[in-house]
Structures are given as C-alpha cells and as structure tokens.
Amino acid sequence: xxxxxxxxxxxxxxxxxxxxxxxxxxxxxxxxxxxxxxxxxxxxxxxxxxxxxxxxxxxxxxxxxxxxxxxxxxxxxxxxxxxxxxxxxxxxxxxxxxxxxxxxxxxxxxxxxxxxxxxxxxxxxxxxxxxxxxxxxxxxxxxxxxxxxxxxxxxxxxxxxxxxxxxxxxxxxxxxxxxxxxxxxxxxxxxxxxxxxxxxxxxxxxxxxxxxxxxxxxxxxxxxxxxxxxxxxxxxxxxxxxxxxxxxxxxxxxxxxxxxxxxxxxxxxxxxxxxxxxxxxxxxxxxxxxxxxxxxxxxxxxxxxxxxxxxxxxxxxxxxxxxxxxxxxxxxxxxxxxxxxxxxxxxxxxxxxxxxxxxxxxxxxxxxxxxxxxxxxxxxxxxxxxxxxxxxxxxxxxxxxxxxxxxxxxxxxxxxxxxxxxxxxxxxxxxxxxxxxxxxxxxxxxxxxxxxxxxxxxxxxxxxxxxxxxxxxxxxxxxxxxxxxxxxxxxxxxxxxxxxxxxxxxxxxxxxxxxxxxxxxxxxxxxxxxxxxxxxxxxxxxxxxxxxxxxxxxxxxxxxxxxxxxxxxxxxxxxxxxxxxxxxxxxxxxxxxxxxxxxxxxxxxxxxxxxxxxxxxxxxxxxxxxxxxxxxxxxxxxxx
Length: 640
Ligand code: NAD
Prior knowledge:
Residues 352-503 form the 6-phosphogluconate dehydrogenase NADP-binding domain. Helices cover 48% and strands 12% of the residues. The relative contact order is 0.06.
C-alpha cells in the first residue's frame, strides 16, 4: 500500500487516514485506487459498520489532487494520465456519495478540490475550529470538479456561483451553511469520537458529539451575493461586480479578474444546467469530466498549474483574457464525449480485447471476458474454438483496434516474440497486459517496449490454476503504472476475485515468483516431514491435527495437504493428478533463481527446491504429476 495513506480495520470501522501531511495530504492516483479497493471490500463485510476518514497533521485534511504529476505528463503531450486519474477519482467520489454504509469524514485545516471529493460526499461530514473548505479550481484553469459542481448547485441562493468563481474559503460555519459539512465538533474531541465509532460502529455518536456551529459570515452576505451573482453569463457577473461598491464586490472582482475566464464561464453554465435538472451527483461528475477531459488540450489547465504551482509567477496567460469569450467555447468544453464519456459501475463500456495464447488458462479466461459482452478476438498457434470468442489469423490481427491485448503464453521468450508482432499493430493509448508467468527481465523489457510505443503496459501473472481460470476466481498480481492498472482492473474483476497492484513494471512477476518460491519450499518441507513422521511411526492424521494448528502450519499443510485421505480434498486424493503440475513449479522456481541471480539475492532454500524439482521432473517420474507428489517420492527414499 502507498505510504501516503493508512488503510486498516479497527474494531467495527473501516479506517482511512491520509498520512502525507508534509504535502498537505494531496491526493494522488494510487491513494484513490487504494481507497476504492478498501471500501469495496468493506461494503460486503458484515463486521464493518461504517467508514471513518481522517488525516494526519494540523494544516490540512487534503488540500487537493496531486496536479503537479498531471502537469508533468500533460506537458509531454500525454493527456491520458490525467483523463484516467480524473475518471477513477470521479467514480470514487460517486461511490462515496452512494456508499451503502455510513461514511464519516473529519476535516481539519484545508479541504480543497480532491479533498472535497473524498471528504464532502459522505453522510457524516465533520468540521472544527480550523476547517477551511474551498473549490479553487478556476485559479488553475479547471472547474470545481470531484462533484464540486453538485455541491455548489445545491448551495442556497447564488452561493454556488460565488464560491465557484471566486474560490472563497469557507470557515466551519459557512461549510455547514453551504452544504459541504454536517457537524461542528471541536478538534480536541475527535480522538474520543473516533475511538467510540471504532468500538461501537454506531454512527449516531457523530451527531451526539456535535456542538452548535460558529457563525456563518456567508449567511450575512447572502442577499448581496445573490444580487451580485444573479446573472447568467460571466460578462454580466463581471459588469455587476464592477458597478457595485462594497468590500465583498471588490474582493470578488479581484478574484474573478485573477481566475481563468473559460473555467468560470463553464462553471456558471454547469451550475445553471445542474440546478435546472435537479441533477444527481453522477450527472454532475459526468458533466465535469467533459471539461476536465478537454482541459489540457483545449482549456487552461496546464497554463494554470504552471503559473500557480510550477513557476509560481502567478501570471497565467489565460485563453480569452481579452474579454471575448464566445458561447461556442463553453459549448465545446461541455459537449458530450461520446464513447470517452464518464461511466459508472454497472455501465462500463464494452471493450475490444485481443487475447493471445488460448491454452489451459487462456481459453477459459477469454471465455469469461466474452460472457458479459466484451468483444474478444483470440489468437493461438494451435487451432482453438471458444464460445463467444472470434478467432483471428495472426496475433497482430487480434491486436488491431483492441483497447486491451492480453497474453497468456508459456514463457518469456515467446512473450517477447509475440510482443514484437503485436505492439506495432496496437492503437495508441491501448494497454498491453501480460498474464503469463515469465521472468522479471522479460516482463520489464516488454513493458518498456510498449510504453515507448505510446501504450500502457501491465504484467499481471495469476494464481488459482485452471480451476480458478474456469471459475473466474483467479488472483492477479500486477506491475505497471496506476493508469494502466486502472484500465485492466475491470477485466481482472471479471476473470478473478482479487487484483493487487504491486508496483511498477515487473512487480507482478516479482510477487508471483516470490510467492511460488515459498510454495515450492514449503511443499518440500511438508512432504519430507510426512515421510519422516511415517518412519517414526507417527500416524498421518495425528501429524495433520497437530501441525495444522501449531507453528508448522502452512497453506501446503492446511489447504493442499500432500497426504492422501488427510485434511481437505486435494490432488493427493486424486492419484496426484494436477492441480498444479510439478513441471510448472519447476518453471517458477527457475524463474525465482534467475531473478535471484540478476538481483544478487542469496536464496539457498529456493535453489535447493529448484534442484529437487528438476530431479523429480527430469530424471524421475514427476512430469505430469501434481507438485505435491513429492510425498510419495520421499516415502520411497532413504537417507544417503
Ligand atoms: P498452455 O501451454 O496450456 O497454453 C499456452 C498457449 O500458448 C498454447 O495454447 C500455445 O499454443 C500458445 N502459444 C505458444 N506460442 C504462441 C505464439 N507464439 N503465439 C500464440 N500462441 C502461442 O499453458 P497454460 O497452462 O495455459 O499456462 C499459460 C501461462 O500461465 C504460463 O505462463 C503458466 O506458467 C501460467 N500459469 C499457469 C497455471 C496453470 O495452472 N496452468 C497457473 C498459473 C499460471
């Protein structure tokens, strides 16, 4: 998990704490994905009664999204990273708003932009003496996003227009008035409250701790704000502010002159539309995404971030700074995005998927992808027929026009060969996802080749075997960028029950071979211990009873016991038919030792396990047997 966030379960509460106070807890892509994954798990966990979100440090709950990272990719012409980040962030915002269990957020200090998206959509939003909430996006060429337009469109009178255009900061009283928070609770009572929530799971504790909110200055200013921001267009609002003579009008005019005209004009139009439709948060987010999707290429986002955060000259060269802002510019930024538009869970768009390598694992995985309606084009060297999968004549043909290409191949060399044919045929921005088990070097080389060709890349080997592939219960361990993982995650969710983003390119293969090295070593240890027990006259059932509940327990003993008739049913009960074949274990152990060699790691047990499985498979009768058939092997042997 990212060190920027601490996700855990404490008592009856799913707990999320931002732990990046030095960066004002700015929200990045990995943090969004981690929150999303945890909340999905907690949704169906009956032991979890509610979710509590808080943050370390005094200065900020979360001062915004990590836009500097998006600036870096955007200025290199890569708009995809930003679009992917916003898409998944907005989906998370809607998910929080619609979450079936109570979500409590405790927001001290600054809560802005991305922080509002996490903290201000739950049903139990808490502020304190230091809380300052704002939507300052117009200052960096964006619109108030992350569901900000939804909140602003529902604020009383014209407060939404005022807050969205001027980025004015709200203190605790104002946040409650404007509908960004529910309860005022002094900060020194938060620790007790959180402890109570964790222990009891009783969300009523939040209201029980609330105190009357401090005065809301915006309530006093309401009439004037409603008058000043009543107009429909930015020009009219600006003219009204210029004509007015008050402190509030003067400071609002200063802000309106500082911020991006295009952003402000679009904000006004969005609030008007959302209010007219009494829109849902999903409708608001979908509209926001139209703007942010275009904001790097056609809007002021990159220039705004440059001026505010990168060069810090505070002198942005906005588009339409001459005061001429045609309606067409606003219409363009808010026009529907067609198939690129934001969708939510249950309305995912159909993908075109190239699937190469349709053997024991690949064939059922491809069939599972086709079932919910994805268009799957397959290719294998051997003739194959799979229900719902259209076959191509070459690997390149299967990859042409695909959103995602998945490979499920025997080894790293074949993967490299196939990648060389497929990558040039793929459309820019598509994702190459290898699910084979291969060496880390090949995984990294293929990822680099794909990325150099403008593609996303993921290495995502699986565990769960042929049974898991058929049942759609595989576990995916993925390496690659966060945007790449986000693209393929919905597909992994169809083919499996768990997908873990382990890190950058090669991290998935690293996780797989480390896991399987432990598996190979423990299987050998379990088998030799059973053989020793036999020779000591210890009954196998008794041995299982003791070890499976003592410190010698392991997955190989408890879940996959190599002794026939002992423990749960396993390949040992089926004459050691695989299951997981000994030669596949040998392959994985060789990969682990190859990686250990490249990384200069000392792995004596892994080395010995490789040698034992090599003897078993290549010189004895292990080929075609389950890897747990090491037990009958040891039974026959004597100490040398
Ligand atoms: P498999 O041998 O049944 O399937 C591999 C397929 O790739 C075959 O159909 C073969 O014809 C095809 N192929 C080979 N070269 C090709 C090429 N150049 N172009 C197109 N197709 C080509 O193997 P499998 O059991 O499906 O395993 C696939 C991968 O999954 C392996 O990397 C394996 O280590 C891994 N894996 C397997 C299991 C398991 O239990 N079988 C479990 C986890 C991971």
